[in-house]
Design goal:
The chain is an alpha+beta fold. It is built from two helices and two strands; from the N terminus they run ββαα. The chain is globular and about 35 Å long.
């Protein structure tokens, strides 16, 4: 059973575990679901504590990965949705 682990880094360089999930497989749909759940928890937590300003639309600013084949298309989709159609490559 694959294990997904999301790690964050504080401004002073300390690592912390943001989320951990056991996944039924390593397909894109599963990675997408896991990332959506993390986003939901992160945004909900920030909103309930009054820290809306720290939420970058719920999207991470930096993602570092081992280039897992099921995860890469999901990350590419996330990048496209962040850029928006006006910033898409080849439209300038």
């Amino acid at each position: 059973m694959p294990l997904f682990e999301a790690v964050g880094i504080t401004p002073i360089g300390k690592n912390f575990i943001l989320a951990t999930a056991f996944m039924c497989n390593e397909q894109g749909t599963t990675y997408k679901w896991v990332l959506e759940q993390i986003k939901h928890l992160y945004v909900s937590s920030a909103m309930s504590t009054g820290n809306e300003s720290i939420v970058n639309d719920g999207e991470p600013i930096v993602i570092i990965t081992d280039r897992e084949s099921g995860l890469m298309p999901v990350i590419e989709d996330m990048k496209r949705s962040q850029l928006g159609s006006s910033m898409a490559p080849g439209t300038n």
